[in-house]
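DUF4397 domain-containing protein
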Amino acid sequence: MKQWLMILYVILGFSLYGCGGSSGGGNSHTQASLRVIHAGADAPKVNILANQSALVDGLDYGESSGFKQVASQNYNVKVNAQLPDQTTPTVLTEDYDLKAERNYSAIALGSVADNTLEVLVVENADSAVASGYVRIQAVHGSPAVPTVDVYVTAPGDDVNTASPTLTLSYRQFSDQLSVPAGDYRIRIAPEGTKTVVFDSGTVPLASGTDLLVTAAPNVYGGNTTSPVVLVAASGSGASVIFDQTTGADLRAVHGVADAPAVNVVLNNSATPAVADLTYLNESPFLQVPAGTQDVTVNVPSLTTDVLKDVPVPLEQGKFYNAIVLGSVDASDAFDIELLPFEEDRRKVATEAKVSLVHGSVSAGTVDVYITPTADISSASPTISNFAYKQTITGVGLMPGEAVISVTPAGSKTVAIGPLTVNFEGGKLYGAVAQDAASGGAPLGVNGFDELN
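Predicted structure tokens:
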């Protein structure tokens, strides 16, 4: 614990840098504005208090608090880290003097794992955006990406004949740029090259738009070639702009104990996206277009599809699993069906992240225990009444050794486990509770990632 607190103390120490622009001229002569932007890809959620009042609660990666108007005065600021054991230790207490008619954007940058996370504060004068114009300020916030040229052009302009709008290295930020409202395209290339590594496609910017845009590490699904996303912070929040080629990631899982190998077909393609997938196995993540994918599951030796054109909606930048569950046995009540669910796969250095699926047709409703030892006699379930087809994802656990035990709901009789796991911060652990290969007991798990 002491090690993590020291890391977080270093992470969240504020350094003031500044000059530039505004939140839109909304401050009185006695007020300042402050917002916090989370661009630390492996950092936990944070709470921030100013003079004992909550300023930000549970701010996650890719989010912004939006501007909070506060009296211009000295503030005692506390930063609390949200840890998986439900504690929120104060890791920083400092005083800051916020000036009237000034806006402060505190941006978390860097990496917890590399002990490089810090907060960069950009200070701007408060002024309104001119009518018919938009205002943009850019920040290079991706530590693994070298110095880049940024092109802000009309959507149809050829980048090969364009001059860079900006050149920025890590932690540098631009002045605020005022341009006429309209459609724009943002492209990023290594300095001195035309090799585009990020392409926003067409971005419509309405009159009065005022954005601080941070190029942050891409830890999202659907694109492994673009190293960054753009966290576009307005006065009220933030949105993530993806490279225009970004889709979603989809993984297929065979969870039918008494079924043979299957093919998984997307959108009636003549070629299976996944071929000959056997029980207790899963495909790699497949990058597919965002939108609705029609999923068909068939057995190669049969002419009738097991599942036909099951619509699965997929959002840009997200990860999904599609698990084939049920039983071939017509005498039971478990028809074969597709269970799609979104998975939280952002790695956080201060926690191990767990995703679980109940896929056993024989187990009934269960309780899941995650305990320091195999003794659960006096323990309460970590997850109670976990029913067939239920999923959980993104459950954070403190790093260290723990024991997983699964029992029938309300019982202390272990049906799966006990399984001892050394949970490591910054890693993912996934499992599907399943029947034996021929169905029924002994029950077991199909493990993913660090449990594979």
